[in-house]
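Run log // design_07
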């Protein structure tokens, strides 16, 4: 009440000791109309109007928590779909710019409203007057909920201008804050989506649309007014989680199977090399036919004396393929038939 007086005096260079004057101010009273809308209140408002625009308007305020004063400047371009919801830029290209989100339910109703309009260019107003062309003025935007409340005859109207009252538009904003808090969203993101972030955060806290949506998704179930749609969304999210889990499980099973095949293959290789060592040992000890070629004898001895892994034993002959060739050459002489 004193602010206009103080401003008038300041503009006319009339200085007063406001510190002393404020000592005589009466004690402050509790501010009226501070309660948030409940889900039932919002559903009553939706049931009290048949206008597609008004329903979209209610869902928009409930889902974004934006001030009604931001509505006149919003354009269709300010709404960017992400997954099944959307990110909305408020006060675009101003020092007060910030972003918030839309639930799938609110986006569905907004698209339904826009589908009946002719002017849906990106720079067209998001909400228009009844002519579907001109943007809602600040007064008109503020009156939308006021007229619907009269039609709905909300019991809250009996408590107008009391501590139990609920403001026409700001009560959506209070509900929005409460929903985000109940969803355990990080406080910095709540402040940002409310447009309440501190001066330093305006320069340093710059979340991406994906960051915002990741946090906002936690509150979709609480923010959704039609709980059947909320349950449907939750089931879809659970299906995504289950599908992702099954995919990871299958990848793990495949990895184990591959490792199992590798182990079995390695064991088979060890058995095969062991048998070949025994065979070569027989040849060297004279229990079988010993070929007179010193080169063969030398390679057999190197192969038998390799006491480490099978792969290293094979390397003495140049690998598995060379061992096969070695045996073929040995048999081709016709003097010995390998088992």
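design_07 sequence
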């Amino acid at each position: 009440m004193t602010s206009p007086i103080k401003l008038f005096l300041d503009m006319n260079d009339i200085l007063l000791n406001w510190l002393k004057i404020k000592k005589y101010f009466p004690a402050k009273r509790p501010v009226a109309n501070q309660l948030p809308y409940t889900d039932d209140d919002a559903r009553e408002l939706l049931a009290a109007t048949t206008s597609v625009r008004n329903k979209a308007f209610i869902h928009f305020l409930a889902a974004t928590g934006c001030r009604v004063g931001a509505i006149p400047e919003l354009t269709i371009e300010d709404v960017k779909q992400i997954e099944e919801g959307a990110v909305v830029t408020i006060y675009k290209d101003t020092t007060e710019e910030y972003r918030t989100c839309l639930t799938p339910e609110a986006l569905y109703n907004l698209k339904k409203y826009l589908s009946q309009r002719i002017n849906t260019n990106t720079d067209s107003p998001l909400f228009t007057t009844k002519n579907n062309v001109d943007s809602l003025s600040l007064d008109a935007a503020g009156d939308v909920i006021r007229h619907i409340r009269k039609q709905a005859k909300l019991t809250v109207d009996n408590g107008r201008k009391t501590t139990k009252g609920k403001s026409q538009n700001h009560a959506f904003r209070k509900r929005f804050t409460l929903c985000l808090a109940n969803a355990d969203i990080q406080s910095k993101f709540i402040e940002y989506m409310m447009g309440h972030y501190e001066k330093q955060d305006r320069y340093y806290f710059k979340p991406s649309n994906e960051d915002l949506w990741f946090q906002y998704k936690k509150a979709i179930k609480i923010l959704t007014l039609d709980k059947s749609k909320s349950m449907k969304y939750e089931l879809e999210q659970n299906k995504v989680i289950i599908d992702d889990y099954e995919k990871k499980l299958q990848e793990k099973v495949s990895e184990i199977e591959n490792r199992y095949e590798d182990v079995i293959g390695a064991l088979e290789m060890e058995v095969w090399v062991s048998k070949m060592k025994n065979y070569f040992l027989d040849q060297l000890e004279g229990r079988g036919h010993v070929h007179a070629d010193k080169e063969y004898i030398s390679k057999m001895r190197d192969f038998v004396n390799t006491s480490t892994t099978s792969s290293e034993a094979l390397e003495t002959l140049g690998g598995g393929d060379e061992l096969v060739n070695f045996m073929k050459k040995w048999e081709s002489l016709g003097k010995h038939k390998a088992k």
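The chain has a mean pLDDT of 82.
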